[in-house]
Amino acid sequence: MSDRYVRHEVSDHVATITLDRPDAMNALVAAMKVELRDALERAAGDDDVRAVLITGSGRAFCVGQDLREHADNLEAGRGLANTVREHYNPIVSAIVEMDKPVVAAVNGVAAGAGAALAFACDLRVAADNAKFAMAFSGIGLAPDSGSSWTLQRLAGPAVAAEMLLLGEPVPATRALELGLVTRVVPAADLPKTARELAVRLAQGPTRAYAATKRALAFAASHPLNQSLDLEADLQEASAATQDHLNATRAFLDKRQPAFEGH
């Protein structure tokens, strides 16, 4: 399925969502944000999809808000036109709360909301020429798109403060050292490497992955005793899945398990 600015394709149980406005470095206009949100919601609700891969077309992953559209809104007295609440927040929530693993293939510059989009994903594979820039302060704005939440969980509060206050670009190799990305590969290898990772996840225990995402999100803001209680609940539910039963049998039979996602 293809909209004007976002391509959405499903194969091998992977939904590949491609930001497709390459002439503008995939800068986000209102219509594109709606298409992205809708694509994520379709992937979340599609039982055939067991993993999601997000990438950009052209030389950038996403440079965030389209400033030409934003400037027009400012001149018309509309300010942000409520785009943070109506667009960015639902997009980030859809990624973080999705009961499926989400991989970002960062093929170039990721700035502002574009970088935050990548940081919201569960795993990030970056091309060696990719860069991350938290560009909000450079235009007199506060962080949005969950970046104040994701950045300090990935790299700690000191790094989050540095990136958000100074807005200096972070190259892929440094991002790997900071824990902002999962791996860095040559740009030519990125599509293949990211795709293989997404397919691997799509062939895994989907419900166990969903439980893992929920446990991590909960434990990030709750004390140990509450986290232990939730882990017990999630483990009991996971132990009742067919995938767990089949994997246990496979282990005893000394063969690789074949997960079916239920």
Please give a handful of descriptors for the protein shown:
262 residues; alpha/beta; Lyase 2-enoyl-coa Hydratase, Chain  A, domain 2; six-stranded mixed β-sheet; four-stranded mixed β-sheet; 49% helix
Topology readout:
Elements: E1 6-11, E2 14-19, H1 30-45, E3 51-56, E4 60-62, H2 67-75, H3 83-97, E5 102-106, E6 109-111, H4 113-120, E7 123-127, E8 131-133, H5 147-155, H6 157-166, E9 170-171, H7 172-178, E10 183-185, H8 190-202, H9 206-219, H10 224-239, H11 242-252
Parallel strand pairs: 2-3, 3-5, 4-6, 5-7, 6-8, 7-10
Antiparallel strand pairs: 1-2, 8-9
Helix pairs in contact: 1-3, 3-4, 4-5, 5-6, 9-10
Q: Can you offer a commentary on this structure?
A:
With 262 residues, the protein is an alpha/beta fold. It has two domains: 6-202, 2-enoyl-CoA Hydratase, Chain A, domain 1, CATH 3.90.226.10; 206-252, Lyase 2-enoyl-coa Hydratase, Chain  A, domain 2 (Orthogonal Bundle), CATH 1.10.12. It has helices at residues 30-45, 67-75, 83-97, 113-120, 147-155, 157-166, 172-178, 190-202, 206-219, 224-239, 242-252; strands at 6-11, 14-19, 51-56, 60-62, 102-106, 109-111, 123-127, 131-133, 170-171, 183-185. The strands form two sheets. A six-stranded mixed β-sheet has the order 1-2-3-5-7-10, with helices on both faces. It has a four-stranded mixed β-sheet with strand order 4-6-8-9. Helix 1 (30-45) runs parallel beside helix 3 (83-97) and helix 4 crosses helix 5. The longest helix has 16 residues, at 30-45. The radius of gyration is 19 Å and the shape is globular. It starts with 5 loop residues before the first strand and ends in a 10-residue tail after the last helix. 41% of the residues are buried.
